[in-house]
Amino acid sequence: MTLYHAGPKTQSWYGQAVGILILDATYPCIPGNVGNATTYNFPVRYKVVKDASIERLLTRRDPALLEPFINAAKELEAEGVRAITGACGFMALFQPQVRAAVNVPVFLSSLIQIPFIKEILPPGRKIAVISADATALTPEHFSNTGSVLNRDIVIGGMENCREFREAVLEEKGSLDSDIIEKEIIQVLMELMDVHRDIGAVLLECSDLPPYAFAVHEKTGLPVFDFITMIKYVQSTLAPAPYKGFM
Q1: In what order do the strands lie in the sheet with 126-131?
Q2: Is residue 98 part of a domain?
Q3: Most buried by CB count within 10 Å: which residue of 111, 136, 145, 209?
C-alpha cells in the first residue's frame, strides 16, 4: 500500500512543483515565453505580483515593490509549490530578500545562471547577455544573483528594437514574432562583431526564449534562458526513476 498525506490546510491542489511570479503587465505571451503554460511539459502555477509594472521594476527599480514580491512568494509557498521562479530577469532586484522570506528554493532571474556558465566555458570566453533594456541593467542585478558585472560579460539590449519595445516594454497589445526574431539576431550579431570571443548567450528577458532556437542556429553557441533554468530546477524536484536492462 502507498500512503499519501495531505499538504497544509492552505493547499487544495497538487502537482505544481514550480511557482512563477508574473509582472502586472499585459502583452501576448507566445509559446516559449515564461508566461505561456504550454512552454512546459509539466504543470506550473502562476502568481501576479500586485502593481509590479514593467516601468516600476525596470525603470524605477521601485523598492516599494519588495513587499508585494514577498507576499506573492509566500502565497505560492502556501499553495504548495516547491520552488519559485520569476518571469523577468530584472526580478534579480529582489532575489536575496525573497529567498530569505520563504522556505523553498527561489530563482527569480535568469541571471542566476551566469556563475555556472562561466565555469563551463573555456578560459577567456565571454557571456553575451541579451536584455530587454540594457540601459536598466545594473551591477546590483548581477551581484544579487551571485556574479559580478565585469569584462567577461557583454550586454546587448532590445530597447531600441521597435517591435520589441512597442510590444513588450510599451505593451501596445500585439506582437509580431517574426520581426522580434530578426531584431534579436541583429542585436546579437552587432555584439559579436565587436566581441569575437563570445562563448555563450544568456537571454535575460522572459520574452526572449521563443527565439533561443534561432539564436543557436545562427551562432552555433550554447543558449541559456529562463526555460533552461526552470527545466533544470524542476528536474531536481521530480527526478524520474531509471529503467532499462543490464
Answers
A1: 153-157, 126-131, 198-203, 223-224
A2: yes
A3: 111
> What CATH number does the domain containing 161 carry?
3.40.50.1860
Considering its fold, how many domains does the chain have in total? Answer: 2
Write out the three cell numbers for 42: 509539466
In a domain, 65, yes or no: yes
| Farthest CA pair distance, the chain | 63
Q: Which residue has the cell 526580478?
A: 91
Residue 6 has a pLDDT of 65
For the CA atoms of 106, 157, 60, 28, what is the dihedral angle to 10 degrees?
Answer: -70
Same domain? For 115 and 103 the reply is no
With cell 565571454, the residue in question is 126
User: At a CB cut-off of 8 Å and minimum separation 6, what does 180 contact?
Assistant: 161, 163, 164, 167, 211
With a CB cutoff of 8 Å and minimum separation 6, the contacts of 38 are 31
Question: Taking the model in full, what pTM does it have?
Answer: 0.93
- Residue 185: inside a domain, yes or no? yes
The answer to whether residue 156 is domain-embedded is yes
Residues 61 and 99 in one domain: yes
Domain containing 35: what range?
18-109+230-237
Burial class of residue 169 in the structure, from the number of CB atoms within 10 Å of its CB (0-12 exposed, 13-18 middle, 19+ buried): buried
Tell me: pLDDT of 145 over 80: yes
Cell, residue 134: 540594457
**Beta strands at 44-48 and 18-22: parallel, antiparallel or unpaired:** parallel
